[in-house]
Amino acid sequence: MLLGLGSAMSRVIPCPCIWPSSRCLARTMAVSLPLLMIAGLAGAQVADASADSDAGVLPVVVVSASRSAEPELDVPASVSVVEAKPVQTALPGSGLAQWLAQVPGLVAQDRLSYAQDLQISLRGFGARASFGVRGIQILMDGLPYTLPDGQSQTDPLSLLLVDRVEVLRGPTAVMYGNAAGGAIQLFTADAPSQTVLEAGIRFGSDATREEHVRTGGRVGAFDYLASLSNFATDGFRDHGSARRDHFYGKLRYRPDASSSLTFILNAENQPFAEDPSSLNAGQLAEDPRQAVARVFQYDAGETHRHRQGGFVYARDLGDQDHLQASLWSATRRVIQFLPFSGDEPLSSGAVVDLDSASAGASLHWSRTIRDSVLAQRWITGFDFQRQHETRKGFVNADGMKGALARDERDASSRLGAFAQWRLGLARWHLDTGIHHSRVAFDVDDRFVNAFNPDDSGQLDYSRTTAFAGPSWRASSTSNLYLSFGKGFETPSFAELAYRPDGQGGLNFELKPSTSRHVEAGYKADFSSTTRLRLAAFSIESDNEIVTASNVDGRSTFRNAGGTSRKGLEISLDGKPGENLAGTLAWSLLNARFSTGALSGARLPGIPRSTLFGSLRWENANSGLHASVDAAWRGRMFADDANLHEAGGNLRLGLEFGKRQHWGDWFLRLDNALDRRSVGAVVVNSGNGRYYQPATDRTFLIGINLQRE
User: Fold this and answer.
1) How far is CA 588 from the centre of its chain?
2) Hey, how many other C-beta atoms are within 10 angstroms of the C-beta on 596?
3) Is residue 155 helix, strand or coil?
4) Cα 204 to Cα 182: distance, rounded to the nearest angstrom
5) What beta strand segments (E) does 159-235 contain?
6) CB of 681 within 8 A of CB of 643?
């Protein structure tokens, strides 16, 4: 049976690799290893089908992607849930990428620069970002880490307390407003019933280390969680060192069984992070660890600090109604040195000095009605955010702040109002929703002279989007659905900052993009130990925002006439017993320009295929655990004309450790095959430096001490 299943799957899933024949063995490993893992799980499942123990049963997954908690099987959309507990073994900057690797349709590229953050794309949306995250809403414990203009940062996210990550993609994601790709939500764990104190240290390659403490517990009607960490590294590449500190705390008050008030505080400080910049093909082949000379001359890098706090109030109003309200504020201070002088008359400088503050509120109400014939649920509410920032630019005088070249006072706001409705009749369900977004920009230019005219102005974007999704419960453990939706995405302040023609002033010609999504999906829990998710989709976009050029970290953007995305995503999870768990995730995406001079060309920065497989073993009695994971990312182009490309990227990870009454220890090896590859690409690089290398083989050792 094992061989038959492996053979069948190899026929169904084509090899995503495009490698020379001399590498056929590595190609075969990349495809066959995860398949054999899952085949083995399936074979073991049959043997254990009659077991009385439920230790190996997959838990029922409850998600909040639709803004109301419900079984993931019932949601007519692609929702992936990543349990973070088994993978607390990665350092800041790479931990989130490690978790998200197992989500089909999602690509998290580590630029190996703490000055630039991760690059995350969902079904190809977000691949244009030269730093930060675009086209994706990011939330943690209900508070947004996406600004009103649609820009997100992952560096403030503290992962030490994270319990699970939910990733929503497809038509239903339009309910989150200004994002075409979808939404990523992180949730921290519930506080333990008894006080727990943990201290740990992790260290590894390139003088990388992290020390942390975590605590949690309950006192009367209060429960709490908190973590504090310090991270430092010399970096894999020259001029790539960084240091970062994190604090995350959550205090919850439960006055009664039907209500709670949660206070959240997050503080992140990065005293410095050097930026090695990107390399051209020759430099990459010569030495991927090197940095270009100009990053040393201009001391390229970034310092920043982030503070965010808020309240979340939740209350059950009887058996049918639920209310949730939140209030939050955040500040961010950034100083970034780019690797050039920026002393030209029309330049905005090469030292970015940004001071921003944002605040927001939300109110959501839901009602659920169940009777003998019809089941109904209504969800309605609004989200509001406002952001103010002071943005200055200075000449980079060989690593020193020089003459003033830019001075603006910017403001943006976002108002989103939505309503959702679900109707259930027997095995049929119909989910519908409507969302109205209004995003406003206001620029006050305070640097006006003979070379720089007044670039003040206002922009106001409004759009109403909707989705509808019928679904059919074929059985108690399977669901078929079809969903349709329209997406909406505005440019961010960073994308408006520079004009593609090289002239001074803001890029006010940049238009918002719209998209039309169609998705068909199948979800099945074949038994209590095997879970299958399959989705096929088609997305057509107008005026999609794409990279026009990228030179030394300064990016300009334009609207593409039209783009098309067609894809397939498959995920398979198995847990045949108390000791084994496996995951397989595969995606195929054909993303192309559909109109204009580039019609037919593939969209840059988007791999055609990705494949992830993992197998984890853990003995509950001894505490020993081991895992192997393999991640494959297919080739992708780096420019609109498809003249430059990054080859496939195969990375194998191995992990071994032991849990004991006093804590745990682990050893992890990443890129165990020590393959050279590209970690991320710089789309449409104006100087030919398209490539940001991935690390060589690296190790990480960690030990945690725990006291209850």
Assistant:
1) 18
2) 11
3) coil
4) 34
5) 162-169, 182-188, 196-204, 208-219, 222-233
6) no
Helical residues (DSSP H) of 321-421, grouped into ranges: none
- State which H helix or E strand residue 679 sits in: strand 678-681
Contact 122, 136 (CB under 8 A): yes
Alpha-carbon distance of 535 to 523, in angstroms, equals 9
Q: Which domains does the chain have, with CATH numbers?
A: 2-707 (2.40.170.20)
Measured between alpha carbons, how far is 557 from 474 in angstroms, rounded to an integer?
A: 46
Coil, strand or helix at 257: coil
CA pair distance 63, 72, nearest whole angstrom? 6
CA–CA gap between residue 601 and residue 590 (Å, rounded): 10
Q: How far apart are CA 590 and CA 262, in angstroms?
A: 43
Compute the distance between CA of residue 522 and CA of residue 545 in angstroms, rounded to an integer: 31
User: Residue 234 and residue 245: Cα distance in Å, rounded?
Assistant: 15
What CA–CA distance (Å, rounded) separates 313 from 548?
44
Give strand pairing partners of 82. 165
Give the dihedral sign, CA 150/154/160/162: positive
Mean pLDDT of residues grouped by 10 in the chain (708 residues)?
A: 35 35 36 38 37 53 66 88 69 75 90 85 86 87 90 88 90 84 91 93 93 95 95 95 96 96 97 94 95 95 96 92 95 95 86 96 91 84 94 95 93 94 91 93 88 84 92 93 92 82 78 93 90 96 87 80 95 88 96 92 95 93 93 94 93 93 92 93 89 94 90
Q: What is the pTM of this model?
A: 0.88
Beta bridge partners of 197: 215, 707
